[in-house]
Amino acid sequence: MYDIKKVMVALDLSYHDQFLIKYLLKNLEHNDNLEEVYLIHVVKDYNDPVLKERFSGDQPIDEQIKTYIKSEISSCGGEDFMPRINIEIHEGQVANTIIKWVDLKKVDLVVLGKKYDVQHTEEVPKHVVRLAKCSVLVLPDKELPNEVEKFVVGVDFSDLSVQVVQQAHLIANTVMSFFGKKPSVQLINVFEVPIGYHSTGKSFEEFSDIIKKNHQKEFDQFVKKHHLEGYNLRCDFLLDEEGDTAKRIARYVADTHAIGFLIGSKGRTNLASMLLGSVAEDLLKYKHEVPFGVIKDKSSNFDFFDAIMNV
Known about the structure:
Layout: E1 6-11, H1 17-30, E2 36-43, H2 49-54, H3 61-75, E3 85-91, H4 94-104, E4 109-114, H5 123-131, E5 135-140, E6 150-154, H6 159-179, E7 184-191, H7 204-225, E8 234-239, H8 245-255, E9 261-265, H9 271-276, H10 279-282, E10 292-296, H11 303-309
Helix pairs in contact: 4-5
């Protein structure tokens, strides 16, 4: 696990920015670990007529945008935190530019918005989730929940799952400082019954029960191996009958009224993950009423993929 000390929040100058700014201000108020904070906006083209009409003052457009963002921070009650916030305005393709500056600033967490009433807004978060070297948090276009009961964490009992569990408990402690109550951390593990199960002579239900028991053993070994007994972990084992792990997770999160959920990602260390997609990316297809975080292992080696991306 690594501490989150540098955070970058991506703004798009829409109504959704207020939710992202309020989230950031809450963290600045309650999280003493934050050392560097960046608000970034990427301009696709400074010659865009709509942009020029919106920012038609005498100053350069990037300076006008900075002034606008500062006014948004002030309207959210963030005047006192202004000296701690760095505002970055850059031109380019949105996702690639965010990823570039995440790397340059050595950011630990990038925060993005997802507007569920607008088509195709998952493309930037999906691209960033796939290629950013740091962890990613996607916030919905609504206020943070007031009720704090449960925080859902998807695990596969890998070494990365240890980091996800530890990060979830840190987040739960931060949430407690927000609301005065600590949410429980609920682990989930999704499994499928293989197509050829009938050749074993077992029914679907019987084979499903066998797999579930094996996963329970894996969970027990996972807790013991990584000395996680002190976290008092509980895990629900979810059968995916549709071959869509992301959909099964999204349904569970909605049904249990969780305040947020985390999942691990191997990032760019797994070529198959990069080419074929991942559960973390697929989750962006579904509407979430709560924050969704993807935890990455920053110690992973990205050199091979860096070389490919720079060809």
